[in-house]
Amino acid sequence: MKHIELLNEIKEKGGLKIVTVMIGDENKVFYIDEDFEDDFTILKWFKRGMATEAGIAIRQVLEEDRFLVAGVHLQRNTYTILSAAEVEWAFTTDSKTGKPIPKAKSDTFVYFDELLESWEFEDGPSDIENFSVHSKYVVFYNKEENGIQLDGSFAYEYNNKAYKGTFFFILHEEEVEEESENEELNVGGSFIFTSQFNIEDKFLNDMVDEEELDHSLIGIGMSLEDYLLPESELMQVMFAAYYKHYGVRHNDDPKG
After folding, report:
1. What does the alpha-carbon distance between residue 27 and residue 16 come to, in Å, rounded to a whole number?
2. How far apart are CA 77 and CA 222, in angstroms?
3. What number of other Cβ atoms are within 10 A of residue 54's Cβ?
4. Is 8 left (phi over 0), alpha (psi -120 to 50) or beta?
5. How big is the chain by its Cα radius of gyration, in Å?
6. Which of 16, 42, 162, 204 could, after both became Cys, cross-link 61 (CB 3.0–4.6 A)?
């Protein structure tokens, strides 16, 4: 699920990210920080761009008038990270006339990996260590959510102490594709994926600082994201259950 993978990578970058998705003559701007909750809308734009062709500009706010700027190209159901030179060319060249545009003094063009990580805006990286998902899990059809649900558990260490937690993923049924007003643009059906994790009370009781707790929860969430990649064992199990129940492959199923 390349659109989810891309969003997760952007979220891992620290601070406020001003993300502009450009599809043809349409632009949509999202302001992504730790409180961002509109995953559904931005994922629809990402998936729509991957189904056709689109560009994404990511401006990471460092100070009031200072930004790191990276770019991504969407096409053929995937994405490509642009080089710093490609991003600079896009921002300093008129796309219609080819004439140069003065570079904004506030912008520093970088490769995506050069954007600062979340921990670089905090006190340091999360101290979550030895994170692992248990091999035993339950997969079933959730009628109320109309999707395939996987319930599992995980273990991790924090400050040399062992803890446990639980999680669930839900792969919701995709909607039938809709025709766009532009006949050349076929907008894919809505994709919804739900994930949530819970931690044991012992861990909460051991946390004496709210900021430390928030930082640790981010670390756990980032650790779980690795299991959301389409090639992961858990997602392969969910894709197989999706196919068995609905009789069709999910669009993001590598076997589709």
Report:
1. 19
2. 24
3. 21
4. alpha
5. 20
6. 16
Provide the β-strand partners of residue 73: 55, 80
Specify burial of residue 211 (Cβ count, 10 A radius: 0-12, 13-18, 19+): exposed
H runs (alpha helix) in the chain: 2-12, 39-51, 84-91, 201-206, 210-225, 233-246
